[in-house]
Amino acid sequence: RVVGRLTMELLGPVPVGPLRVEAAVVRPGRTVEMCEATAYDVQRDRPCARATAWLFPVHEDGPVQDAEPPAHGPDDGVPKPPPASWSPGYLDAVEWRWVRGAVTEPGPGLVWMRPRVDLVEGEPMSPVQRLMCCVDSASGVSAALDPAAWGFLNTELTVHVLRPPVGDWICLDAETTLGPGSVGIAASKVYDRRGLVARSAQALLVAKR
């Protein structure tokens, strides 16, 4: 099976502490299948995140389409410092190569990324795990507002995956659209060196700090 769509709902703060994960097959099937996993904050005994994945059969005889590799690669990008108001952690765990834009430059952004560390120590990441570690950054890559003055928290993340990415590097071509109130949408096209691998969208809670 391959992941065709993955949606994550952020239900509350994820603690730096013990988590309990429960997983289940919600919709079994011979062709497609839906699986779900929920992470619980053990100390508070409440769910903090939920992921739902649609799994599709593996086929090698699908319609052949011309792959259009990006006209740029990681070597064409440059590192740029993050906003001074942001804390380290995830930002240091990922290598960034900016081709266009930056978190400190409001507007669309184009960046190549790759995790510096394993998701689970000692276990290599799968291609889709590597994809998910990067694609959640679309709202920051395409920040449309000054992050020191505005918060734009994504409440969920939905990724439609055409194929698993190949290689270490993931490219996000992201753009944020703001509504007239508290809602924004961050969307991205996701590439590897060979071409398009996924599209993502995030609903943002936009509020002044």
Topology:
Blueprint: E1 2-10, E2 19-27, E3 33-41, E4 46-56, H1 90-93, E5 94-102, E6 105-115, H2 127-135, H3 138-141, E7 150-154, E8 156-161, E9 170-178, E10 183-192, E11 195-208
Antiparallel strand pairs: 1-4, 1-8, 2-3, 3-4, 5-6, 6-9, 7-11, 8-11, 9-10, 10-11
Characterise this structure:
The protein is mostly beta strands. The chain is 8% helix and 49% strand. The protein has three helices and eleven strands. It has helices spanning 90-93, 127-135, 138-141; strands at 2-10, 19-27, 33-41, 46-56, 94-102, 105-115, 150-154, 156-161, 170-178, 183-192, 195-208. Strands 1, 2, 3, 4, 5, 6, 7, 8, 9, 10 and 11 form an eleven-stranded antiparallel beta sheet that branches. Strand 9 and strand 10 (183-192) form a beta hairpin. The longest helix has 9 residues, at 127-135. 25% of the residues are buried.
**Number of discrete helical segments:** 3
What low-confidence regions span 5 or more consecutive residues with pLDDT below 50?
none
Major sheet description:
11 strands, antiparallel
Morphology call: globular
| Number of DSSP strand runs | 11
The arrangement of helices and strands along the chain is EEEEHEEHHEEEEE
Over all CA atoms, what is the radius of gyration? 18 Å
Helix percent band: under 10%
Strand content: over 45%
The rounded distance between the terminal residues' Cα atoms is 43 Å
Which structural category fits the helices and strands?
Answer: mainly beta
The pLDDT mean sits at 92
